């Protein structure tokens, strides 16, 4: 048994940080969400007014729509493609370490840098349009960054491109744990590579796939930087590509920001991410249940 | 050999065994093609993942006289120059932003490595009342997304007059809950006997932590350090909210500002992004061996 204070001394910095900069601000957010607080005044209790205001706020519904589309557009590729990447770089071979590092590079770069790089690539005079036009495929440039839907799709593509390497690493770590005997047995049975993937690898990856679905879905609802940079802080034409985080920042900033309303929106964001997380995890539990 | 038969009998569902000989023959024939296919795919994906960075680097190296909108686009600069890196420093205090980012990132790394290893060790290796409750605090903190508390954090920083300072940029990320749990996992994996032996030798908790436990979790420490550095160096939203004086800008905020000011000159933006990403790539290349090892260290238990 430990002398009483020692463990708590070890825990002090970490616990203090999490309580002061995470849990306490969260409780504050909850409290603020039911007030009409402004940046300059604490405001008073207004009950559910902020949530009623949300229902009438067209930008809130736009943000919700964009977040939902983001989840739908980003999660399936981020669950499947990194698994294929991981399979490609799993077996050691000449240069594999180099390829792993190369695939991980987009993860390292900041979302701002990545956004700026892709702004340049997708610009009407950028590499993508320039190449396609030089090849004669296009007569006019594709407005990747100025069309409501194309901007959203471009941001999704950037998110996927940046996320592949990260989830690849998670898969790699799990792939190492698939019992090699199962593979050998299937091979002896004459199962080809595709069949071995479906019968041996995929079932063993199920938990990891669920985890990645949950992680990528949650981060899809929190998207900010990609759209912010690609659109040049305008949230797309007419602000129609706004996301929840962009909206929170917008309503709460400035000398007289509506921080109460911002906090209420934050609470919705929290509810959405937690709800998504729990439902994906429950899906997994349900799948396991009958066995 | 005899085990193969039992294994096969144990794992093969009835009726799913095709004629093995033909399959084997086909596999042998296809071997070279398969390797070629695999490397072809690897190179293609590599081009997709690092091509955009190279295009950015190429733009940053193109001189003022060169048409960066040439059609068809030209990859290699005609007359490569470092002039854009000098010019971007003239129009914006980029090197000051770099210095701010370096300080923020180093402070974040030190605080996270120290705080997370200490807490992770206590949770995994020390027995005391309240351990489960402490663990629960970290898990709960993990569930709160930073974006959902940024308004409250901003008000908090303002109430203690810290907003618009680099300290305010560092504080919220000083000990990430995820890092604590990563270290917890790593310490949990250590053999209890070594700890017990050290205890019998009279080592106290601090000695066991620094002399016995820490040296064997270097991989996970590298992962925590890299994640902390990347997180701080790459962060955009929180500094954007909390910083307003350009003298305090970190590099990401400065880059966004650069874009707004000089939309006309793509070369300068490109130079700025190269300055922002190059140190990280170098850092990662230096530590990548530990990183990939550390990822596995943590995963075995995860």
Automatic annotation (TrEMBL), chain A:
Residues 64-282 form the ABC transmembrane type-1 domain. It comes from the Bacteria. Belongs to the binding-protein-dependent transport system permease family. GO terms for biological process: transmembrane transport. It holds the Pfam family BPD_transp_1. It comes from Nocardiopsis mwathae. The keyword Magnesium does not apply. Keywords: Cell membrane, Membrane, Sugar transport, Transmembrane, Transmembrane helix, Transport. The chain crosses the membrane at residues 7-27, 69-89, 101-121, 149-173, 211-230, 259-281. The keyword Membrane applies. This is Multiple sugar transport system permease protein.
From TrEMBL, chain B:
GO terms for biological process: transmembrane transport. Pfam families: BPD_transp_1. InterPro entries: MetI-like, MetI-like_sf. SUPFAM superfamilies: MetI-like (SSF161098). It is found in: Cell membrane. Signal peptide: none annotated. The chain crosses the membrane at residues 36-55, 102-123, 135-157, 169-188, 209-233, 268-287. It comes from the Bacteria. Its main location: membrane. Keywords: Cell membrane, Membrane, Sugar transport, Transmembrane, Transmembrane helix, Transport. It is a multi-pass membrane protein. Residues 1-15 have a biased composition (Low complexity). One of its GO terms (cellular component) is plasma membrane. Residues 98-286 form the ABC transmembrane type-1 domain. Residues 1-23 are annotated as: Disordered. Belongs to the binding-protein-dependent transport system permease family. This is Multiple sugar transport system permease protein. It comes from Nocardiopsis mwathae.
């Amino acid at each position: 048994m430990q002398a009483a204070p020692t463990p708590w001394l070890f825990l002090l910095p970490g616990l203090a940080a999490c309580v002061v900069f995470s849990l306490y601000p969260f409780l504050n957010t909850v409290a603020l969400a039911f007030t009409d607080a402004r940046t300059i005044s604490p405001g008073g209790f207004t009950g559910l007014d902020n949530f009623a205001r949300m229902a009438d706020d067209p930008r809130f519904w736009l943000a919700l729509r964009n977040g939902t589309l983001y989840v739908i557009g980003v999660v399936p590729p981020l669950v499947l493609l990194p698994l294929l990447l991981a399979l490609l770089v799993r077996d050691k071979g000449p240069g594999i370490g180099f390829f792993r590092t190369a695939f991980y590079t987009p993860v390292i770069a900041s979302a701002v840098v990545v956004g700026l790089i892709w702004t340049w690539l997708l610009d009407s005079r950028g590499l993508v349009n320039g190449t396609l036009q030089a090849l004669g495929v296009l007569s006019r440039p594709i407005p990747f960054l100025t069309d409501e839907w194309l901007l959203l799709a471009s941001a999704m593509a950037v998110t996927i491109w940046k996320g592949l390497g990260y989830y690849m690493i998670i898969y790699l770590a799990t792939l190492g744990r698939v019992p090699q005997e199962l593979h050998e047995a299937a091979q002896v049975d004459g199962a080809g590579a595709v069949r071995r993937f479906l019968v041996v690898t995929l079932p063993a990856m199920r938990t990891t796939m669920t985890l990645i679905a949950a992680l990528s879905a949650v981060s899809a609802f929190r998207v900010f930087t990609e759209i912010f940079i690609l659109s040049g802080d305008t949230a797309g034409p007419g602000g129609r590509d706004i996301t929840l985080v962009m909206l929170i920042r917008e309503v709460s900033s400035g000398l007289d920001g509506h921080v109460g309303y911002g906090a209420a929106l934050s609470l919705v964001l929290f509810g959405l991410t937690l709800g998504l997380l729990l439902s994906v995890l429950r899906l997994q539990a349900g799948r396991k249940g009958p066995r | 050999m005899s085990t193969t038969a039992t294994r096969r009998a144990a794992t093969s569902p009835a009726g799913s065994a095709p004629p093995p000989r033909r399959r084997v023959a086909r596999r042998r024939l296809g071997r070279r093609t398969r390797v070629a296919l695999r490397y072809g795919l690897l190179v293609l994906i590599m081009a997709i993942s690092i091509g955009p960075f190279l295009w950015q680097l190429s733009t940053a190296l193109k001189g003022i006289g060169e048409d960066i909108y040439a059609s068809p686009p030209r990859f290699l600069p005609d007359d490569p120059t470092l002039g854009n890196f000098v010019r971007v420093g003239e129009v914006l205090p980029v090197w000051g932003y770099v210095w701010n980012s370096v300080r923020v990132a180093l402070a974040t790394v030190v605080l996270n490595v120290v705080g997370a290893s200490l807490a992770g060790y206590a949770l995994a290796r020390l027995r005391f009342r309240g351990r489960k409750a402490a663990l629960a605090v970290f898990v709960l903190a993990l569930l709160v997304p930073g974006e959902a508390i940024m308004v409250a954090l901003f008000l908090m920083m303002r109430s203690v007059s810290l907003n618009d300072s680099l300290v305010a940029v560092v504080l919220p990320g000083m000990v990430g809950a995820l890092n604590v749990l990563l270290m917890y996992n790593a310490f949990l994996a250590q053999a209890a006997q070594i700890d017990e032996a050290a205890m019998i030798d009279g080592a106290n908790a601090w000695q066991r932590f620094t002399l016995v436990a820490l040296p064997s979790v270097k991989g996970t420490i590298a992962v925590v350090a890299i994640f902390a550095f990347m997180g701080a160096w790459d962060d955009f939203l929180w500094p954007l909210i909390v910083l307003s004086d350009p003298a305090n800008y970190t590099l990401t905020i400065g880059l966004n500002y650069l874009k707004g000011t000089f939309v006309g000159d793509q070369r300068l933006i490109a130079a700025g992004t190269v300055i922002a990403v190059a140190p990280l790539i170098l850092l990662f290349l230096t530590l990548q061996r530990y990183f990939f090892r550390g990822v596995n260290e943590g995963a075995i238990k995860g």
